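[recover] target loaded
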């Protein structure tokens, strides 16, 4: 395993599942293979297809998913996958599944998943072979009777998934299916395969720019429906693709009726494919027109929202300026009060000086009077003595 260590993201058990969830993209349709009685919890698609061969599990799924946009197919993985067209489902999940298959069957199933998935294949399994022997009719970990489907028949390692994103944890499984402690624990890992985008007639990148630009300022819409743009674009693309596919089936039927007696199946399929390509080009133009018309409904409100945002920013700027002015005014008022206090203090000092001066003046006058009287007395004595 050392040769792969550099591309494995090893995590502890506390962050392991969250780290893997970060790699999983939103999807319109999900094929959940071998889901048991508990479908995957990572994302909520618009269409969930559960593949579960054990009838007891199927009956429980039917009750839980009643009324939802879900399909339950009571067949094994290979049967279902081989019946599906290429790139017909967005994402495929195999959570705790492939270890229950012989290795060669698991390899075939994974190969088929890569063919059928448009976007991702998400897989979780123990790290290496983890013994778990349960026989048909035995009680499983859910206290049901799916023992034969819970037996471990193979072990898998990150090296089996070269080119996939790997998130691993070396100490994860601390208890067995009966709740008994496992010491030391077994590890586990996620393998996520990102499917290379194939060329198509519907430009989803441009479509998202058109709709995203028309709703860019509608924050309430984006907060309530964060996947709004992606969901609208992919839903319309899927509808357009399906429309052309249904038309192609109809046209193929007509061609077999018209030409089946004189032409081979290969020739008929070639004619049907050419006509389908032409139909896809027409549908792509119609799709582009419809999307722009749909986006135009948001342009006026989006423009008003943009103007509101601009005015709100202007108000915030003015409030900030007003706050700064108020701060400056308070500083000026504080300076004026300081100066007024300084003036009052100086006036008080001046008043004290004036009081002291008057006191000195009175004292000086008193002394002058005393001195004058003293000199007068002296002159008088001198005068009398003569």
């Amino acid at each position: 395993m050392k040769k792969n260590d550099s591309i494995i993201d090893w995590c502890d058990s506390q962050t392991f599942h969250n780290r893997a969830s970060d790699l999983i993209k939103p999807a319109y349709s999900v094929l959940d293979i071998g889901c048991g009685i508990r479908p995957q919890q990572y994302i909520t698609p618009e269409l969930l297809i559960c593949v579960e061969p054990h009838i007891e599990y199927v009956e429980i799924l039917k009750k839980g998913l009643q009324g939802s946009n879900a399909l339950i197919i009571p067949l094994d993985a290979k049967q279902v996958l081989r019946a599906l067209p290429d790139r017909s489902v967005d994402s495929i999940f195999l959570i705790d599944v492939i270890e229950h298959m012989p290795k060669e069957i698991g390899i075939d199933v994974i190969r088929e998943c890569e063919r059928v998935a448009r976007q991702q294949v998400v897989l979780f399994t123990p790290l290496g072979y983890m013994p778990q022997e349960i026989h048909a009719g035995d009680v499983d970990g859910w206290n049901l009777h799916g023992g034969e489907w819970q037996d471990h028949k193979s072990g898998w390692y990150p090296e089996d998934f070269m080119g996939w994103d790997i998130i691993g944890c070396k100490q994860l499984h601390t208890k067995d299916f009966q709740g008994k402690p496992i010491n030391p624990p077994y590890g586990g890992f996620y393998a996520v395969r990102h499917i290379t985008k194939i060329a198509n007639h519907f430009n989803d990148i441009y479509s998202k720019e058109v709709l995203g630009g028309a709703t860019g300022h509608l924050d309430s819409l984006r907060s309530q429906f964060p996947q709004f743009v992606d969901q609208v674009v992919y839903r319309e693309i899927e509808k357009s693709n399906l429309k052309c596919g249904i038309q192609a089936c109809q046209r193929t039927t007509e061609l077999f009726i018209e030409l089946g007696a004189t032409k081979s199946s290969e020739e008929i399929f070639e004619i049907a494919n050419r006509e389908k390509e032409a139909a896809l080009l027409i549908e792509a133009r119609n799709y582009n027109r419809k999307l722009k018309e749909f986006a135009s409904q948001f342009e006026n409100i989006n423009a008003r929202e943009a103007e509101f945002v601009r005015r709100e920013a202007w108000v915030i700027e003015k409030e900030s300026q007003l706050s700064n002015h108020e701060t400056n005014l308070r500083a000026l008022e504080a300076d004026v009060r300081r100066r007024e206090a300084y003036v009052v203090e100086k006036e008080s000092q001046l008043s004290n000086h004036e009081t002291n001066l008057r006191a000195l003046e009175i004292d000086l006058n008193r002394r002058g009077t005393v001195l004058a009287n003293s000199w007068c007395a002296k002159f008088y004595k001198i005068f009398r003595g003569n």
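[recover] notes: The chain has nine helices and eight strands.
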